[in-house]
Design a protein that fits this description.
The chain is an alpha/beta fold. The protein has one domain: 3-Layer(aba) Sandwich (Rossmann fold). The protein has a seven-stranded mixed beta sheet with strand order 2-1-3-4-5-6-7. The protein is globular and about 35 Å long.
Amino acid sequence: MKKIIILFIYLYSGLYALERESTLKMYHGIFSALTSKAMISIYTTDEEYIKVFTASKRIILAQKPEESDIMLITDRSTLNNILESDTIDQDTKRPILFVTDYHFLKYSEDVVGAFYWRKGRSQLLFIHKRLEEHNITLPVLYQKFMIDEL
């Protein structure tokens, strides 16, 4: 019985590690498409994503929103706080806002794209006009995920 339990724990931990690795790989591709920097600074308040990005050699976690290249927003309260915040000077370059919920794309014109799940399938969207406002040209690989408007 102990061997079976240990086997399940081992398999589960292996699957969990694989999930984190694939999540990191996917977000690294998306973030690399949004900025040409070799080292990308990300701000997020989500503990799971912090754990995922900690394992990266090319993604640095920013302690403050204004120190980041990209802000990954996973909940509405964080999005509201960022949009209402005065910590990011309007005259300086604002971080790129990327979200994990389709509804956040509709909620704010400042959000350039989203990666989210719908009916068990992953969905990736970028809004063309919003990318242009940040002078972002997506690589060919990601252009099929770009739409003109919601």
